[in-house]
């Protein structure tokens, strides 16, 4: 059986538009990514009937990338405002190739387990798990209130009473919750990868480290989550105390990670961190 022409087409396999390795340090949220048109992994995942690859992104993929870029830029504005709020709050409070035998495999597994256990006991991992618990608890405890708020806003839209503002607030709630829910488990996962990677790393200090790349993805996830919690605080001002607890915990975790992985912010991820992009 002959291989599909599209699969043998060098424009698909070696398309110059693909950014090599861009998928190695992403957050896997293709729906919100501004680089799907340059990602070979994304092109492979969206196959045409019969399993053939798309040679070029669909026209609406490019429009999607533009919309995604604008979405994150707007969220970045909220992050700046949220961080300014936190700084003011803190100023007031003062705050190998050879085949291994069974014994070698057992030794390797034991080493991996020791590295993972050491990583799980690290203050960064503990704080990340605590954030996950705080975020999940808030969403579960306040789901009814969120639903009620959404219904009230939808009534305003139906009655054309402040419809424009109500529409914006519904969008803010949905966007914020999507961001928080997406990144809440990823923060811990990425930090565990960074911690275990650093413990087991044997790379020269001068080389970029995979652990820094993982830590950077975690830091970006925290940046976006902070902005999302800031959006919710705007919508639910009566719950400021709840939000302050979460915001302060997440911001302290973020600063812990920046200290532990001091080169993470400067780690250059293919595509995402290119100046021209």
Give an account of the 3D structure:
This protein is mainly α. The protein folds into 2 domains: 67 residues, no CATH class; 159 residues. The N terminus is likely disordered.
User: How many alpha or pi helices?
Assistant: 9
Helices and strands: which structural class? mainly alpha
Beta-strand share of residues: under 5%
Please mark out the parts with pLDDT under 50 across 5 or more consecutive residues, or reply none.
1-12, 48-57
Strand element count = 0
Rounded to an integer, what's the Rg over CA atoms? 22 Å
Instruction: Categorize the overall geometry.
Output: globular
Order of helices and strands: HHHHHHHHH
Write the layout of secondary structure elements.
Blueprint: H1 5-8, H2 10-13, H3 40-45, H4 59-93, H5 102-120, H6 123-158, H7 163-200, H8 210-235, H9 240-260
Helix pairs in contact: 4-8, 5-7, 6-7, 6-9, 7-8, 8-9
Short description:
This protein is mainly α. It has nine helices and no strands. The protein folds into two domains: 67 residues, no CATH class; 159 residues.
Which features does this protein show?
277 residues, mainly alpha, 9 helices
């Amino acid at each position: 059986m002959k291989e599909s022409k599209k699969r043998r087409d060098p424009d698909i396999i070696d398309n110059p538009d693909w950014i090599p390795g861009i998928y190695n340090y992403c957050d896997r949220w293709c729906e919100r990514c501004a680089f799907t048109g340059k990602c070979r992994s994304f092109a492979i995942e969206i196959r045409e009937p019969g399993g053939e690859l798309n040679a070029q992104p669909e026209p609406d993929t490019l429009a999607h990338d533009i919309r995604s870029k604008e979405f994150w830029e707007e969220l970045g504005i909220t992050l700046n405002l949220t961080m300014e709020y936190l700084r003011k709050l803190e100023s007031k409070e003062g705050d190998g190739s050879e085949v291994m035998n069974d014994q070698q495999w057992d030794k390797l597994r034991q080493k991996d387990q020791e590295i993972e256990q050491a990583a799980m006991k690290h203050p960064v991992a503990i704080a990340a798990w605590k954030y996950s618990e705080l975020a999940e608890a808030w969403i579960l405890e306040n789901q009814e209130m969120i639903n009620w708020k959404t219904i009230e806003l939808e009534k305003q839209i139906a009655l054309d009473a402040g419809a424009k503002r109500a529409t914006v607030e519904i969008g803010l709630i949905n966007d914020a919750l999507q961001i928080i829910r997406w990144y809440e488990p990823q923060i811990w996962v990425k930090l565990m990868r960074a911690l275990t990677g650093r413990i087991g790393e044997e790379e020269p200090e001068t080389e970029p480290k995979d652990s820094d790349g993982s830590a950077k993805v975690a830091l970006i996830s925290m940046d976006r989550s902070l902005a999302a919690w800031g959006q919710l605080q705007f919508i639910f001002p009566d719950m400021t105390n709840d939000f302050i607890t979460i915001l302060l915990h997440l911001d302290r975790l973020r600063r812990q990670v920046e200290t532990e992985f001091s080169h993470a912010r400067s780690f250059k991820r293919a595509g995402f961190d290119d100046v021209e992009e």
